[in-house]
Fold:
Amino acid sequence: MKRIIWLILFCGLTSSTNSESTIKVKGVVLIHYNANFNSANNYVEIAKIKDAKIFKSWIDENPEVKDSERIRSVPTIILYDSGKEIKRWEAGLNLKLTVPLKEIQQEVDDLTGANKF
Structure:
């Protein structure tokens, strides 16, 4: 019984640590949050973003992330700069994210200075 409890505690700490370490990455980070039930509406265009580290998080596999990052709808994309949330884009009632890729890239460029001479 003790082994089961330790295993549960260890798994909980591991998954929590994984999500937190992603957000603590230095530099510009985009995290695409979604759920398996909505995988048909993944924002696949995010892979085209330049000058940002991109991660994906499934909130049904890591439910603690839903609360810690205040995810209210999926998909949601959050832009972080050295762990600080800068901007978020959330799906509407249709569970689709309609933000133009150009808008996300512009926010990244503003942080990285890529659009400066």
